[in-house]
Design goal:
It is a single chain. The radius of gyration is 15 Å and the shape is elongated. Helix 2 (20-43) runs antiparallel to helix 3 (50-78) and helix 3 runs antiparallel to helix 4. It has helices at 2-15, 20-43, 50-78, 83-106, and strands at 44-45, 111-112. The chain has one domain (2-112). By secondary structure, the protein is mostly helical. The longest helix has 29 residues, at 50-78. The protein has a two-stranded antiparallel sheet.
Length: 113
């Protein structure tokens, strides 16, 4: 769901004539918020509070947002790759990094359903 939110923000931002790199960063932030709420509520039986899980999730997500921004910048600005293809490539890499970071650190110790 976070990816859908991310892509929706990106497409809307670009469709109004704005920079796809900024649109991707904004989409990442909205996708991060969506993913945190859904992971906390539905994917993991979290026995702790938001106070202990959100800072970890934020670090993992911020790392992912920075990675996304670098990949998008390099692919679009330096390699002239179409913005949606660049975003798909960045998404695949980020999904892998974010999954492992959140599964083994943010929500570690939580019972996974």
């Amino acid at each position: 769901m976070g990816t859908a939110v991310h892509y929706s923000v990106l497409v809307i931002y670009v469709s109004i004539g704005r920079d796809p790199i900024i649109g991707s960063i904004l989409g990442s932030v909205f996708g991060m918020a969506t993913n945190y709420l859904l992971n906390f509520r539905f994917n993991y039986k979290v026995k702790t509070t938001h106070t202990s899980t959100f800072p970890k999730f934020f670090v993992v997500s911020l790392t992912g947002i920075l990675l996304n921004a670098v990949i998008i910048f390099v692919l679009i600005s330096l390699m002239n790759v179409y913005y949606m293809l660049a975003q798909i490539i960045a998404t695949v890499l980020n999904l892998i990094c974010n999954f492992f970071g959140n599964h083994f650190w943010t929500f570690s110790g939580s019972a996974h359903e």
